[in-house]
Structures are given as C-alpha cells and as structure tokens.
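Design review, sub-item: ligand-bound model
Attendees: FS, YL, KQ
YL presented the inputs for the WQD complex:
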Amino acid sequence: MSPKGSTILVTGGCGYVGSHTVLSLLESGYKVVVLDNLSNTSNGGTDAAATNTPEALKRIQEILSIDEPIPFYPVDIVDKPSLIKVFEAHPDISAVIHCAGLKSVGESGRRPLDYYNVNIAGTVYLLQVMEDFNVRRIVFSSSATVYGDPPVIPIPETSPIVASMSPYGRTKVFLEHIIRDLCVASSVKQKEYEKEQADKGAKVEIDYRWSAMLLRYFNPAGAHPSGIMGEDPQGIPNNLMPYLAQVAVGNLEKLTVFGNDYPTKDGTCIRDYLHVVDCADGHVAALEKIERDESEGKFECKAYNLGVGTGCSVLDMVRAFSKAVGRDLPYEISGRRAGDVPNLTADPSLANKELNWKAVKTLDQMCEDLWRWQRNNPNGFRTQK
Ligand code: WQD
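KQ shared the predicted structure:
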C-alpha cells in the first residue's frame, strides 16, 4: 500500500516525461526520490555530481517554491550495486515509476545491444532489487510502438502487441511480458505461501504479489506551462515536436517531413499527441489505481493507453505550432523514415474509465506551452538563466 505522502522512486526522473511526472507526484502529495544517469538531459552546465541537483530538478523546486532539494542519485539502472544503495537509503520507497531507458527508434537499430542491455537487463536488475526490498508496485513506461502497424484505429489495449518495429520497440514488448510474468509468478508464490502458513497454523505475514501498470504512451509533447521546464534532448532531436521547436528558435534550418505518400488525409503520418503534463498526471492516476486495487485485495498487471484519442498529421502539427509561434515554419518533404507506420491513434477509454484519467489539455495549449519553453530556453537547460 503506498498511501499519499509515501515515497515514490522515479527512475529517469530527470528526463522529459520523468521530470514532469516528478512534478505531478509532488503536487499530488507524494514524496519522491529520483534516479537518473543523466544521459539524455543536460545540467545547464553544472556538474550534477558536484551540485547533486540536476537542472531539471532545480526547475521543479523553482516551480513549487521549495528549498528542500529533491533526493537525487546519478545512477544507471544497469549498475545493480548502486540501485541497492538507493533502496537502502530510502526504506520508505513504496512504489517505482520506471521511466529510465534508451528511447530512440532510429538509434536502437544501430546500437541494439546497448538497448537490450539498458532497457532489458537494467529493468530486470531494478525488478530484482525491488523484490529484495519488498517493493512490488511498478508503473512502467511502455509505448504505442508495441502495437506495430495496428489493424484497428483508434487502437484499444486488446490490439495485438508485436515485436516487429525496432529493437527499441522490441524492448518495450519484451518488458511488458517480463513484468506480466513476474506478476503471475508472484500470485502463484503467494498462494503456495498462504497454504504453507495455513498448514502450519501460522499467520500470513508477507504479500509476495506484484501490482503493475503498463502505460503505453502515444506521443507526449509540449512543456510545463511555467515555461521553465520542458524537453531537453541531447543533440539533434529525433522526435517531431522538439525538432520543430528547434527550427522555431533558429537552431535548425527547417523540418524534414518524412514522407507524404501514406494512406492518410494529407499523406503524412498521423499520431496521437498528448500534452506531457497530461501524460505525467496519468502516472499519478495509475499509482492511485494500484492503491485502490490493493485496498480491495486486487493485484493486477494491466496495460493502459495514454493518449487523447485524436489523431493529428505531421502537417497538422506544423500548422498548429506555426500558429503558436506566429509564423509559418519551413519544411521540406522527403522519403519515408524506416519503421514509421501510417497511424497511431489511441482509444483512451479504458484509462479514462479505470484510471479515472483523461487528457484535458488542448493542441493549442500544447503548442503554446512548448513555444514558451523553447523561446525562453533555446538551448534547453544549457540556456543560462
Ligand atoms: C512522429 C511523426 C515521423 C521527426 C517514437 C516512438 C515512441 C516515442 C516517440 C520515445 C512520424 C514524423 C518526425 C522529423 C518527421 N519514443 N517526423 N520529421 O515515431 O511516432 O514515436 O517516438 O519517446 O515510442 O515510437 O514519434 O515524433 O519521432 O514522429 O516527419 O524530423 O513525425 O515520421 O510520422 P513516433 P516521432
């Protein structure tokens, strides 16, 4: 049971979704511990190890007007001894929101072993350490990419998951299976333990069962409305909206639209872009679902789509962001990008109903918030304030 006010470990808590999730947790009354290897965010030129407070967490403190530093550990999830030290230092950790991992579709094709090592082995080490410290609640960062090229749009959670898209996508599929297997095994173990205790006339003192929420993100985009926190990708962004934002601030010349010959309304791919703050709130909602379920003796492993339920094409997004920026952003059409599928639009009704969560921010808000962040921080956290 992780009642409000208990401590949640957020792995990858300095990353884009992770940092917004840390903020949402703190705003919802949870205590947070953050672990991140800082491979995909900058520290604004400061040395995290020296200051022990990465820039992303400093911005969260500023937004919340809190002086107390957020407990942070510059740890890589493949470093199991260091993972153990974090749990030893925080025996009040009651659940983990697991966002840490490598996340580039294209890069994963070039570095598959790194992706399997970090995403798969790293997550297995995390699950092992959680088990050893009796922390058996996880909210896992999965992805719509697990649906491959789905047969039905909008996509329900019952749509088959396929390990065909990329090594990155395969890590998400494998991890969903790994977590599901763990949950099933834990229920069997609990039944055997309870029978042993009953045969001995002893009390049941441990609950070995796991609860897991597998959150299939569609396309998180935008930034916190404060304008001081947002996506801070290292190098040239792979994803559409951070790339477009860099074009808007003049760091990149123009957007390359990867193909306009798809079977869609304007030939460009359709995606379900959800505001990153809505996405972050979805993690808190998932945690609260676990708390509700376990208070009723239910221990589940279940996948939920985090999406709006509305598809936007690449050109729709160029238009929407150009409107926020106040000028037409330049782009050119090129060939298709390997691995892209025509349409990934969520059916979010299961999350709406069972997580009591719904994406509420509009496309205009997403674009306005992204523009406010990017124009204030043209070089992300490296922009000196
Ligand atoms: C969206 C659309 C591109 C860049 C992937 C992963 C998902 C998540 C997000 C990690 C596509 C087009 C993009 C550009 C373009 N991963 N595009 N020019 O591919 O839907 O999802 O990234 O967070 O798990 O699967 O997102 O933003 O890369 O692309 O035309 O410079 O924009 O072809 O149609 P995607 P994306």
